[in-house]
Design brief:
The protein is 38% helix and 17% strand. The protein has 8 helices and 12 strands. It has a 5-stranded mixed beta sheet. A hairpin with a 4-residue loop joins strand 11 and strand 12. The longest helix has 34 residues. The protein binds heme C (HEC) and copper (II) ion (CU). The site of copper (II) ion (CU) has 7 residues, from loops.
């Protein structure tokens, strides 16, 4: 293909650039909303350190770019071919110790500075000491959803993590142990911390100390199969009193209402129980998300859809309609059975 820098070509280029700049300006405006995943608006110490490191690296590399580009532009203009040139070669410099030393030592120094800056941040994040009262959570990656265990509290939930807000003066961080049930996944909530992988047969960990309440979104950042793109993450950062209330409600066994006894019976006599746990019932499956307090979550199927009655019904009838290739089978139930099971699950607050 011929490189064709026509006027129209230039205009298209400028338009693309403008679109890019406006999109970024829009993103910058949206940064105050925690629900926008944005690496440029950190809200937790690890994300903040990484952000400042990246600015530092950008400043140094930007400076190198400006210096090199200016010298290059200067040389190209100053020593361009002029009419009446005598076509002689310019004087050759060879074996200049000073110059060779300069272009070896200066880049080495720059690399050392960048290395030390990165090492400092890695050390500060990896070797952080945790104060008493740190919340301990175990996150387990599954194809294509997240299991969250609160070992100190003895309950399990899924897909929507709740953590306490952390005051800068008296930090109450959350330490997350990361494991995988099947293949590689990666835990990434851009405003809270960098990515950390969840690897089978390996225990990784990370921590966050969100400074503001709200819902922070993220997603699995390591390709893990067909529905990887719909393996979303929500971190709900609560005030301490809301967090404690939430903990207390999650520790309760499931609500049992007589009005939905039929749906419960269908659930308990179908393969649902082999894959799902509902605390206080015979459903003790571990393959799928814990459903004990399903209705306290705002989304279904790892953030794929909003948790509404209609979506829940669609999901139970045919999960593939929402996440094709996900690991929950359609159970081939009649319309009435689907209605009854949906009504039952709707009561699980
Ligand atoms: C073979 C195991 C298996 C069976 C059987 C099964 N499920 Fe699931 N279920 C899963 C998996 C795996 C997921 C997670 C899917 C995803 O998000 O990718 C899931 C997700 C769900 C969710 C969404 C949970 C959440 O937190 O978002 C609901 C609700 C649900 N199942 C209900 C049921 C009901 C009702 C039945 C019986 C009719 C059933 N499941 C049978 C494996 C199963
Ligand atoms: Cu994943």
């Amino acid at each position: 293909m011929e490189l064709n820098l026509t006027k129209a070509g230039w205009l298209a280029g400028v338009e693309t650039l403008l679109a890019f700049v406006t999109a970024n300006a829009w993103a910058a405006n949206a940064t105050r909303d925690p629900a926008t995943p944005n690496i440029f608006a950190p809200a937790s110490t690890p994300a903040d350190s990484i952000y400042h490191l990246s600015l530092f690296v950008l400043a140094i590399t930007g400076l190198i770019f400006v210096v090199v580009f200016t010298l290059l532009a200067y040389a190209v203009v100053k020593f361009r071919r002029r009419s009446g040139d005598d076509d002689r070669e310019p004087p050759q410099i060879y074996g200049s110790n000073q110059m060779e030393l300069a272009w070896t030592v200066i880049p080495v120094l720059i690399v050392v500075v960048l290395f030390l800056a990165a090492a400092r941040v890695i050390h500060a994040i990896e070797d952080a000491k945790f104060p008493a009262g740190t919340t301990e959570i175990t996150a387990i990656g599954h194809q294509f959803w997240w299991e969250f265990q609160y070992p100190g509290q003895g309950f399990v939930t899924a897909n929507e993590l709740h953590v306490p807000v952390s005051d800068r003066a008296h930090p109450t961080p959350t330490h997350i142990t990361l494991m995988s049930a099947d293949t590689d996944h990666s835990f990434w909530v851009p405003k809270l911390a960098g990515k950390t992988d969840l690897i089978p047969n390996r225990v990784n960990s990370m921590w966050i100390d969100p400074h503001e309440t709200g819902v922070y979104v993220g997603q699995c950042a390591q390709y893990c199969g067909t529905q990887h793109a719909k393996m979303l993450l929500r971190v709900v950062v609560d005030l301490p009193e809301d967090f404690n209330k939430w903990i207390a409600s999650q520790k309760q066994p499931a609500i049992e209402l007589d009005s939905v006894a039929q749906g419960r019976h269908i659930f308990e006599s179908t393969a649902c129980v082999n894959c799902h746990t509902i605390a206080g019932t015979d459903a003790k499956g571990k393959f799928g998300p814990d459903l004990t307090h399903l209705m306290t979550r705002t989304t279904l199927a790892s953030g794929a859809i909003a948790n509404t009655q209609e979506n829940l019904r669609t999901w139970i009838k045919d999960p593939d309609a929402i996440k094709p290739g996900c690991l929950m089978p359609a159970m081939q139930m009649s319309e009435e059975e689907v209605d009854a099971v949906t009504a039952y699950l709707m009561t699980l607050r």
